[in-house]
Write a structure and sequence with these properties.
Blueprint (H helix, E strand, L loop, with lengths): L5 H11 L33 H7 L29 H7 L14 H21 L8 H29 L33 H18 L15 H15 L2 H12 L13 H6 L5 H6 L7 E8 L13 H9 L6 E3 L5 E4 L3 E4 L5 E4 L7 E11 H14 L3 H13 L2 E3 L6 H7 L8 H16 L6 H7 L4 E4 L5 E4 L12 H5 L9
Length: about 500
């Protein structure tokens, strides 16, 4: 596997197909050998106690990145002087990326690895009832293990349905094809699947997520950093789920529970001495940015990816980058998110958000595994989720109050006090434009800046039916229309041919 990313890349990915009867085959088949073999012929793990079940769940977090979606957004333009692979140009031109099922930073790898992660969660859930738990400590541990398995299963399916299906629409979700919601381990070599509807997937995600939150016990993972679903990460997940679903009352409820009485602590202070000092180090800044010690970082995941490489793929050109961060309503302020940044190619800039990490195959080896540390859930997102939900509930002042919390830690300069008057003037809104529309426009702008190069812009483009223009090398412009079918990623070929899933229309 992974022939384009060295032998060690193949080895590392294969190691994830843990030796407990789990084998990834074509779509996402996971075979159980209990009845096929009387004796286990290798050193696969027997899930016969809670510690082993808990250990297995470390693989229930997909190692595939979704930041490749930024190549399809208005966050990038044609970037000169970088290595452009087939997938980079396909993403940039909104073509189906189906050439290599094992290449990093592709929809196919995300599909395979996310279903593989879900398979690990299902293996644990299938055996939990049989595992002994006689003491109160073991009972609590079993609840914590079940919680993590349910939350990872829910999150995996949630990401899949939001990439490979239409965005949730209450009027059409019951009929829109979603993705298969896999809840049991596989017991056959090749299985045919059907696509649950978007509504069915959302309903199952909600059930798993809420049960996971109910069972969650932070004390069980208190010494494992933020590489597991903790309570704040789970509540942040719920806030995103209900925002995407359009249930704004529930979204606000989970935002309030997570943010508590002092929400500003969950916003990293880019104007602080700590961040300003780190800005002088192009390596130190992203290390601080993704630190598990920051309250704003709620969940961290290790992702196989080349996305962090500044010599690969399209990115924000210098003109696009500067225009984005210069566009704000404050006359005497600058956006602290703009710097530091790496130079990308000949005409691009790339904000310092990722460490470019590399795991060598041995101490003396020059080959290994490129990866980064991704932040799937952040406190800043929850703040913006609550602001957006409040706009829809016509609580404009509450939304502006949350935006002010973010503003205080993002803009450096004089007179950075937000008001509806300031925003209306900024957008030159006439009397026909509501305050709600003005504030919502600003929230979407802030989301674009806050999550630049972090893979979140694509979901806003889908949610709000935005058009995207891309400039080609010859200067011509191509457009992704507001209702363009290509906003739904194509189901992988193997899932169609072997799994029996119908493709998305084109």
């Amino acid at each position: 596997m992974m022939k384009k990313l060295t032998h060690i890349f193949r080895h590392k990915i294969n190691k994830r197909f843990i030796r407990s009867g789990l084998v990834l085959f074509t779509l996402f088949a996971v075979t159980s050998c209990d009845k096929f073999l009387d004796e286990v012929p290798d050193n696969r793990v027997a899930l016969d106690d809670l510690d082993k079940a808990s250990q297995l769940l470390t693989n229930a977090y997909s190692i595939a990145a979704y930041q490749f979606t930024d190549w399809m957004t208005d966050n990038v333009s044609y970037t000169r002087g970088v290595t452009l692979r087939t997938i980079h140009n396909q993403a940039y031109m909104w073509e189906d990326m189906l050439d290599d099922p094992n290449e990093a930073d592709t929809p196919i790898l995300f599909w395979n690895e996310t279903y593989n992660a879900i398979a690990h969660a299902n293996e644990v859930l299938a055996v939990l009832d049989e595992l002994p738990a006689e003491t109160e400590e073991d009972i609590n541990k079993k609840r914590a293990v079940e919680s993590e398995a349910l939350l990872t299963r829910a999150y995996g399916h949630f990401m899949l349905v939001n990439l490979f299906a239409r965005h949730y629409d209450p009027e059409t979700a019951a009929n829109d094809p979603g993705v298969p919601y896999v809840e049991t381990p596989e017991t056959v070599f090749i299985k045919q699947y059907s696509r649950n509807t978007v509504q069915e997937v959302y309903d199952k995600v909600e059930a798993d997520m809420l049960r996971g939150i109910e069972l969650l016990d932070d004390s069980f993972f208190q010494n494992s950093g933020k590489y597991h679903f903790n309570r704040n990460a789970a509540l942040a997940f719920a806030s995103r789920y209900y925002l995407f679903k359009g249930d704004f009352r529930e979204c606000i409820e989970y935002c309030d529970e997570m943010l508590g009485d002092n929400p500003s602590i969950f916003i990293r202070d880019l104007n602080s001495d700590e961040f300003q000092s780190a800005a002088s180090s192009i390596e130190g800044y992203p290390q601080l940015y993704s630190s598990p010690d920051l309250p704003s970082n709620l969940l961290l995941m290790r992702k196989i990816s080349l996305y962090q490489r500044t010599d690969f793929a399209h990115g924000p050109t210098r003109e696009l980058y500067n225009d984005l961060f210069d566009f704000h309503p404050f006359q005497f302020a600058s956006d602290s998110r703009e710097n530091p940044a790496y130079v990308k190619g000949q005409d691009g800039l790339f904000p310092a958000r990722y460490q470019s990490l590399f795991e060598r195959s041995s101490l003396n080896s020059n080959v290994g595994l490129p990866y980064n540390i991704s932040i799937p859930f952040r406190g800043e997102e929850v703040i913006l989720n609550r602001a957006e939900a409040n706009v829809y509930r016509n609580r404009v002042n509450s939304a502006i109050a949350d935006l002010q919390l973010l503003t205080d830690k993002r803009f450096d300069g004089e007179d950075i006090q937000l008001s509806i008057g300031l925003l209306r003037n900024f957008y030159q809104a006439n009397f026909n434009v509501s305050d709600q529309a003005v504030v919502l426009e600003y929230i979407i702008l802030e989301r674009q800046k806050e999550f630049l190069v972090q893979g979140m812009r694509w979901f806003d483009i889908k949610r709000y039916n935005m058009e995207v223009d891309h400039i080609l090398l010859d200067g011509s412009i191509i457009t992704l229309e507001d209702e363009d079918l290509r906003k739904v990623l194509q189901i992988p070929i193997t899932a169609q041919e072997v799994g029996g899933l119908e493709p998305n229309p084109r």
